[in-house]
């Protein structure tokens, strides 16, 4: 019997993997009317299924009285059997890149679980600072946007971001909802998954999923409408092979050319004397194996530029490089001294 349960559990985990063929929207409308309602605050994206559902207990309760040929429909949304994975409120010490001064941040972390957080949680008051709302994210979330609105009668949070995935590779992703309880604790529930085959090599193919929750709370007889919407898009990208920077003068002659491995560009660059603009070239190989080059022109009105590199987990991540342009006075003074 135990062997049968293990086999059924494995089958259930496979069955919840669905093909992403467009935009999928999940919604929970008017989940409850209480000031103690747990709230959806975002998602946690994993590449492996979070097996938090108590399949054994579910089967024990639902197989009783059924014939051997009767179908067993597994309702993984049944909260009675849904396990939780709780986050830990941790403190991290960082250094301000501009001032060089260290500072501490507090954030919710799901320890020992590999994944990409994208949620907006209420962080409680600390010893030296007040409580605040923090949006947890990962460098793999590109073009991320968050909008928060607070009012007497309503409260809304909107999160939106893009994950760039490497073309030509097999990818499976699970969108796990993240909730926060009235006591401030944050936890994950196991969610649904999507599969992208290795045959997808066309750059720009996009699949998206939206989770939305609407609840009404009642506190001291006052109703308040609370909404959260989180949209995550998966966009296919051919991984860059090299990045070339060409420093150009006013008369459009090349002053200097530099080549970088994607992800290895410096955090900041001081362009060569006489540079009027920079051409950023990204080299890739398309689905036919032909070299593909994209070019971006960066002039003195821009203080930074972006490039991409592919991580080991198959995500293509943005890297930002700051530009510290020399002004004409500095260049004239430098040339006179020479």
Q: Could you describe the 3D structure shown?
A:
The model is unreliable at 1-34 (pLDDT under 50). This protein has 338 residues and is mainly beta. It has two domains: 18-47 and 82-237, no CATH class; 242-337, no CATH class. Strands 1, 3, 4, 7, 8, 11, 12 and 13 form an eight-stranded mixed sheet that branches. It contains three helices and 22 strands. It has helices at residues 2-15, 55-62, 328-337, and strands at residues 17-19, 23-33, 39-46, 85-86, 88-95, 102-109, 116-123, 132-136, 142-150, 154-166, 171-180, 186-188, 192-196, 206-219, 222-237, 242-248, 254-260, 268-269, 277-285, 291-299, 304-310, 315-323.
Brief characterization of the structure:
With 338 residues, this protein is mainly beta. 9% of the residues lie in helices and 51% in strands. The protein has two domains: 18-47 and 82-237, no CATH class; 242-337, no CATH class.
List keywords for this structure.
338 residues; mainly beta; globular; disordered N terminus; 22 strands
Outline the low-pLDDT stretches.
Answer: 1-34
Choose one word for the global shape: globular
Specify the biggest β-sheet: 8 strands, mixed
Helix and strand string, N-terminal first? Answer: HEEEHEEEEEEEEEEEEEEEEEEEH
SS-derived structural category: mainly beta
Q: Determine the N-to-C terminus distance.
A: 87 Å
Q: How many structural domains?
A: 2
- What is the helix tally? 3
Quantity of strands, as a count: 22
Measured by DSSP, the beta-strand proportion falls in over 45%
Helix content, binned percent? under 10%
Q: How big is the Rg?
A: 25 Å
Q: What's the pLDDT, averaged over the residues?
A: 79
């Amino acid at each position: 019997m135990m062997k049968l349960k293990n086999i059924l559990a494995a089958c259930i985990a496979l069955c919840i993997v669905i093909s992403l063929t467009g935009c999928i929207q999940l919604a929970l409308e008017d989940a409850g009317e209480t000031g103690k309602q747990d709230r959806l605050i975002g998602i946690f994206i994993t590449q492996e299924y979070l097996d938090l559902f108590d399949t054994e207990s579910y089967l024990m309760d639902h197989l009783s009285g059924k014939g051997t040929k009767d179908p067993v429909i597994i309702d993984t949304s049944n909260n009675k059997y849904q396990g939780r994975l709780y986050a830990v409120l941790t403190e991290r010490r960082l250094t301000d890149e501009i001032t060089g001064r260290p500072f501490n941040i507090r954030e919710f972390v799901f320890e020992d679980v590999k994944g990409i957080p994208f949620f907006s949680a209420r962080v409680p008051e600390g010893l030296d600072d007040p409580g605040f709302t923090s949006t947890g994210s990962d460098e793999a979330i590109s073009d991320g946007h968050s909008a928060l609105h607070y009012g007497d009668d309503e409260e809304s949070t909107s999160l939106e971001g893009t994950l760039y995935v490497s073309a030509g590779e097999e990818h499976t992703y699970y969108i796990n909802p993240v909730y926060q309880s009235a006591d401030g604790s944050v936890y994950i529930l196991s969610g649904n998954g999507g599969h992208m085959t290795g045959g997808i090599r066309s750059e720009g193919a996009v699949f998206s999923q939206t989770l939305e929750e609407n609840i009404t709370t009642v506190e001291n007889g006052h109703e308040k409408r609370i909404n959260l919407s989180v949209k995550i898009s998966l966009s296919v990208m051919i991984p860059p092979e090299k990045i070339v920077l060409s420093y150009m003068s006013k008369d459009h002659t090349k002053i200097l050319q530099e080549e970088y491995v994607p992800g290895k560009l410096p955090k900041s660059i001081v362009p060569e004397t006489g540079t009027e603009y920079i051409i950023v070239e990204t080299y890739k190989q398309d689905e036919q194996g032909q070299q593909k080059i994209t070019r971006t022109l960066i002039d003195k009105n821009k203080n930074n530029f972006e490039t991409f590199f592919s991580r080991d987990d198959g995500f293509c991540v943005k890297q930002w490089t700051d530009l510290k342009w020399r002004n004409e006075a500095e260049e004239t003074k430098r040339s006179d001294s020479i």
